[in-house]
């Protein structure tokens, strides 16, 4: 679990205070990895830079890659004689995941792809702080950093991945465009559905999942807006992340990983494109999802898989079926008899 968290509108102004006691010395900088959306925005002037601290702006147009993590680690090691005092990730799931991975790789030998999997990290990461600027993924609270590698899209899942400190300032999400707000918010909603209906469910996950679900319903189907809505979605993301931390996601995530690997379709929208077709597995969840799509007048892309080759389908099906825990959570221990490659391909063909 994240050991330290602060929450509140305007709390970003406390980042300097939080970092000060963690500064090793004047030569060990803090490195801020910030979504390049903020490059010419006010937030940059509020970043508490001291000594030789550095801001690196990173585009979130593509999901984080193992090679990108390795390049950032090399850049930081080449520029400074000492290891940094810490890494601060500011942005959505993309930046939050990148910052976690960079913090791990700065203190562990080798390259990022070696650590994709479960509990392969040997040494603690550098001190790292997460500051979400869009709500939904739960990346701020999870013990994974999802990376696209040369062979697979898979997280670095470890106890050292989790942030040492998270700063939740709902004001930072004010500028998120509506469609992106919806897609990333639906990531949280789908986490709840997949966790709450899964065979891995337990009282720990259920308590967080139910709270996140209630908050999602308020945000996406209730009549709240503005501050209240931003506050609630930020807490929904947190609880949704906590829920899957002790259970698993399911079919939408497995299939969305395949779409992302082959076609570069991003996580939030990819989940939505898949989830709308999963009523036979998640009848109540999909019915509610459709209401949310309608209420917010969201148009999802169509016929995305219509021109794919058999080889393309094979790749996606392999990536998706490789995520065994997700299928077992969704369909039980005998999932292989239920979800055959042929059936999965037919499901992809609907998207
Ligand atoms: P994102 O980080 O990819 O950002 C989406 C878009 O929103 C980008 O264009 C970004 O620039 C913009 N944006 C972010 N904050 C903004 C703001 N305040 N104002 C205006 N624009 C803003 O989106 P995401 O959906 O949060 O993250 C997706 C990533 O999260 C994927 O890479 C996925 O694999 C990962 N993920 C990780 C976990 C985890 O547990 N580690 C869980 C789910 C998803
Ligand atoms: Zn997700």
UniProtKB/TrEMBL annotation:
<keyword id="KW-0560">Oxidoreductase</keyword>
<dbReference type="InterPro" id="IPR001670">
    <property type="entry name" value="ADH_Fe/GldA"/>
</dbReference>
<feature type="domain" description="Fe-containing alcohol dehydrogenase-like C-terminal">
    <location>
        <begin position="184"/>
        <end position="284"/>
    </location>
</feature>
<dbReference type="InterPro" id="IPR039697">
    <property type="entry name" value="Alcohol_dehydrogenase_Fe"/>
</dbReference>
<dbReference type="InterPro" id="IPR056798">
    <property type="entry name" value="ADH_Fe_C"/>
</dbReference>
<dbReference type="Pfam" id="PF00465">
    <property type="entry name" value="Fe-ADH"/>
</dbReference>
<feature type="domain" description="Alcohol dehydrogenase iron-type/glycerol dehydrogenase GldA">
    <location>
        <begin position="4"/>
        <end position="170"/>
    </location>
</feature>
<protein>
    <submittedName>
        <fullName>Iron-containing alcohol dehydrogenase family protein</fullName>
    </submittedName>
</protein>
<dbReference type="Pfam" id="PF25137">
    <property type="entry name" value="ADH_Fe_C"/>
</dbReference>
């Amino acid at each position: 679990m994240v050991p330290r968290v602060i929450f509140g509108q305007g709390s970003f102004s406390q980042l300097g205070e939080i970092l000060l006691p963690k500064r090793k010395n004047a030569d060990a900088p803090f490195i801020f990895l910030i979504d390049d959306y903020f490059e010419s925005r006010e937030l940059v002037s509020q970043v508490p830079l001291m000594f030789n601290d550095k801001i690196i702006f990173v585009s979130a147009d593509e999901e984080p890659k193992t090679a990108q993590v390795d390049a950032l680690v090399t850049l930081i090691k080449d520029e400074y004689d000492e290891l940094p005092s810490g890494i601060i990730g500011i942005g959505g799931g993309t930046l939050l995941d990148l910052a976690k991975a960079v913090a791990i790789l700065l203190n562990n030998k080798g390259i990022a792809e070696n650590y994709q999997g479960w509990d392969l990290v040997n040494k603690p990461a550098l001190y790292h702080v997460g500051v979400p600027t869009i709500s939904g993924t739960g990346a701020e609270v999870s013990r994974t950093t999802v990376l696209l590698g040369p062979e697979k899209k898979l997280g670095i899942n470890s106890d050292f991945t989790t942030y040492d400190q998270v700063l939740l300032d709902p004001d930072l999400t004010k500028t998120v465009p509506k469609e992106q707000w919806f897609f990333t918010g639906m990531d949280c909603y789908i986490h709840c559905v997949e966790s709450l209906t899964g065979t891995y469910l337990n009282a720990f996950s259920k308590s967080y999942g139910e709270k996140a679900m209630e908050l999602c319903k308020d945000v996406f189907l209730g009549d709240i807006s503005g501050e209240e809505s931003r506050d609630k979605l930020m807490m929904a993301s947190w609880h949704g992340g906590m829920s899957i931390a002790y259970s698993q996601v399911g079919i939408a995530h497995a299939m969305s990983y395949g779409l992302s690997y082959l076609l570069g379709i991003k996580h939030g929208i990819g989940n939505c494109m898949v989830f709308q077709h999963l009523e036979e597995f998640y009848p109540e969840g999909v019915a509610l999802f459709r209401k949310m799509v309608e209420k917010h007048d969201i148009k999802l892309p169509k016929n995305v898989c219509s021109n794919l080759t058999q080889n393309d389908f094979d790749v996606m099906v392999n990536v998706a079926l490789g995520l065994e825990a997700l299928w077992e959570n969704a369909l039980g221990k005998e999932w292989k008899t239920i979800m055959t490659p042929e059936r999965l391909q037919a499901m992809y063909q609907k998207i």
